[in-house]
Amino acid sequence: SSGINAEYGHYFKQINLSTAMTDQPCSVLINVNFSTTPTEQLIKQDFEVAQSPKSVATKIQALKNAILLMQSGEKLPGLLMHVIRYVLPEQDHTIKKLLYIFWEI
């Protein structure tokens, strides 16, 4: 370990963390131009749709919108409980995959 520090230590000393970091650390930033930006309230309403064949597609689209908004830096603090209550119980495979991404963000 000390050999690694001696050999590569000069690389770490040259990095200025104040200029290397942005407001929020993020591995990927996605710039999404929505024709109308979905709000947190609209996404919540889409999650609350009653059980029907269309409800799964609506929840998938709402979850995708939430992921894209959060990934682009938007704060959606009130969304977590709606996801747990209305989306998590769904058995759709696409929703389960999107939930993995949602939990990572």
Q: What is the topology?
A:
Layout: H1 2-14, H2 17-20, H3 40-47, H4 53-71, H5 80-87, H6 93-104
Helix pairs in contact: 3-4, 4-6
Structural summary, described in words:
This protein is mostly helical. Helices cover about 60% and strands about 0% of the residues. Helix 3 runs antiparallel to helix 4 and helix 4 (about 55-70) runs parallel beside helix 6 (about 95-105). The protein is globular and about 40 Å long. It starts with a helix and ends with a helix.
Task: Summarize the structure in short.
The protein is mainly alpha-helical and 105 residues long.
Q: How would you describe the oligomerization state of the chains in this entry?
A: single chain
Distance between the termini: 33 Å
Radius of gyration, in Å, reads: 20 Å
Please work out how many helical segments DSSP would assign: 6
Q: Could you tell me the mean pLDDT? A: 78
From the structure above, extract its key features:
105 residues; 61% helix; mainly alpha; globular
